[in-house]
Please model this.
Amino acid sequence: VIPRIKAVYDRQPPPQMIVTLRDPVERAYSRYWHQRRVESREPLSFEDALAAEDGRLRDDVQGLAVRGRFPQAYFRGGLYADQLAPYFDHFPRERFHVFLSHDLSTDFAGTIRGLIAFLGLEADIDLTPTRSNPASAMRASGLNRWLRSRRTIGRLVKRYVPDRGLSLVRKALRRPFLVPLAIPPINPDTEQALRRRYLPDVRRLEVLLGRDLSAWYPADACPTRPPIGGI
Model:
């Protein structure tokens, strides 16, 4: 991606890039439940899925090359320093605006004003937060798989809807069957094991961003962290 960006912006300043980072353990657990309950694509427990991640990635190299993403990258997806460092090496740091998703809950207006200032936009707008995409799941996993099937939906609507519209059609058909998704709390031992695995990357990220991220440390370094899940 980096060489492609450089090629497109060869004779002009690189684009402004906005990065939002979530607690990596929260992100991993949320992604797991998205795959398991929303997309019905994860048969394993969270712990087994973490253990299988590297093997799955090796087995899916060809699919990864085609899609450009690995949906079951529960742990790897949270290695933010690994992902950001190459961009910081190749583009001016002032072209990036980085904030945490936690910033939106603690100071929504201030966080958005900082983003607006970075983009050079008018700041006289309503900054009232709204909840627009609550977690949900299908009542029946079989129906969900049927509605998500490109073959099924494509056969029904391909004469009337372009390919790029299939996603919107699926969402419209699934909406009546959605129910609120209650995520159970993460196993505390699993959480701490993940935080220990993430710690080297988190410390690198602190240096890259010049920001204290001790809230993402293991419990023995940050014992007051609230539990994940159960919402």
Remarks:
- The mean pLDDT is 82.
- The CA atoms of residues 9 and 15 lie 8 Å apart.
